[in-house]
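FAQ

Q: What does a record look like?
A: Structure on top, sequence underneath. For example:
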């Protein structure tokens, strides 16, 4: 082996071990950086110098490798879709439950009980003006409670609406950043850019369901709902469409260029849309059903009865009520409680059959084969059950996500013990390479002295 070959071997080894030392030091410095992927210098033994079997030509640095567990990465992004959805669904449903499931004295459940009891009190003394006033007051409290419950849920839907716009804005911002990274990766491999790319994809996967496809140079294409969100050359913008025709609003997500509506099945955006478009309208529809049936049943019994003045045909609740939002009492009854009926057509003064029949309505299956109280309890139970489902699925997704994260970290995470061990190895290799160069230098000096 010539002196020049020995010198080249030493130089290449020195350079390779220096790169390995720098990379390992960088790993150690980023040990607590969650978005950092461990790197390794691709060190390889080159072919032996001809005629000198057993002697290598030195260690060479052949670029940086990002230590990745691709299967775990892809699986983690998919599971993030589920986790983001169930976390958001659980959170929003708990807010709805706090409205419907309020167990205070002013809750709708208790107010209904007070309304029925006021009729029972009136039945015990049908000629009492004070008890008629009590029935009127409890009737107003009941209608106000329905309106308040309805308006609070609608108000919650209004509060959710900006979250939809914010989620879409974040998605579009991330798409733009990923497109920019794609363009930069065409110019050359950059581990830092790829780390940033993966962080953005992770963030995106928590908001919306995505399918990621990666090219060899690191460029990615991202699809959502079967449509391209980010390609190698373009980021397709999505936008929000809110239908405000009715009091209860509905939302749709569309691609701006094509008006195509992707299926939003995962991520926090899916959870928001599910509550916004489906669950809230469903709950309010059931509340309307309860209000409408209460109004019609009480009015049917009341209008057939007779009041203190001997008149009949008076509705207790307003006939213009069309649901919980405008559930009100008959203003004539509010102004003159003596119009409240207590007796039947064939009964004399002091009879109470109408008051008793209205009191007994609470025990009749007048709403979807359920009593009013049972119907409302079923609604609250439905909300609680859906919270339990979301909580269970959220917990399961957390476990799966943690397992996948652990698998990913085993490969891409930084272990300080391992890095310190490799740092010692690379430093020893560097010192050995330095000794080769020193030896070659001594040999050259000796040769020069001989001449």
């Amino acid at each position: 082996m010539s002196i020049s070959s020995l010198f080249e071997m030493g130089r290449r080894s020195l350079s390779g071990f220096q790169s390995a030392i720098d990379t390992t030091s960088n790993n150690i410095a980023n040990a607590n950086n969650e978005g950092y992927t461990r790197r390794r210098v691709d060190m390889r033994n080159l072919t032996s110098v001809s005629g000198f079997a057993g002697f290598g030509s030195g260690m060479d640095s052949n670029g940086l490798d990002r230590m990745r567990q691709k299967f775990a990465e892809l699986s983690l992004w998919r599971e993030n879709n589920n986790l983001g959805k169930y976390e958001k669904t659980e959170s929003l449903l708990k807010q709805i439950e706090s409205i419907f499931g309020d167990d205070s004295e002013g809750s709708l459940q208790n107010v209904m009980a007070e309304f029925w009891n006021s009729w029972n009190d009136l039945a015990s003394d049908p000629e009492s003006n004070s008890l008629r006033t009590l029935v009127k007051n409890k009737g107003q409290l009941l209608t106000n409670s329905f309106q308040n419950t309805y308006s609070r849920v609608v108000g919650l839907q209004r509060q959710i609406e900006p979250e939809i716009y914010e989620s879409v804005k974040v998605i579009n911002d991330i798409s733009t950043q990923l497109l920019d990274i794609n363009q930069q990766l065409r110019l050359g491999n950059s581990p830092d850019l790829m780390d940033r790319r993966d962080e953005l994809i992770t963030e995106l996967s928590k908001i919306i369901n995505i399918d990621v496809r990666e090219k060899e140079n690191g460029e990615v294409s991202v699809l959502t709902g079967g449509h391209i969100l980010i390609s190698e050359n373009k980021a397709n913008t999505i936008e929000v469409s809110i239908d405000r025709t009715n009091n209860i609003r509905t939302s749709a997500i569309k691609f701006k260029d094509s008006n195509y509506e992707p299926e939003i099945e995962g991520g926090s955006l899916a959870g928001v849309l599910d509550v916004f478009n489906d669950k809230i309208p469903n709950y309010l529809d059931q509340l309307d059903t309860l209000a409408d049936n209460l109004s019609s049943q009480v009015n049917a019994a009341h209008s057939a009865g007779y009041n203190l003045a001997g008149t009949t045909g008076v509705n207790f609740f307003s006939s213009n009520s069309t649901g919980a939002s405008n559930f009100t009492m008959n203003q004539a009854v509010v102004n003159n409680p003596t119009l409240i009926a207590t007796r039947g057509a064939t009964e004399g003064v002091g009879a109470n059959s109408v008051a008793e029949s209205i009191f007994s309505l609470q025990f009749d299956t007048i709403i979807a084969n359920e009593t009013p109280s049972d119907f409302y309890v079923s609604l609250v139970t439905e909300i609680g059950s859906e919270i339990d489902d979301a909580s269970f699925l959220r917990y399961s997704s957390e476990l799966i996500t943690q397992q996948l994260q652990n698998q990913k970290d085993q490969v891409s995470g930084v272990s300080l013990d391992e890095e310190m061990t490799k740092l010692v190895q690379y430093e020893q290799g560097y010192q050995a390479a330095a000794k080769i160069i020193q030896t070659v230098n001594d040999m050259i000096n000796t040769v020069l002295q001989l001449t």
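Q: Is there anything notable about this one?
A: Residues 74-400 form one domain.
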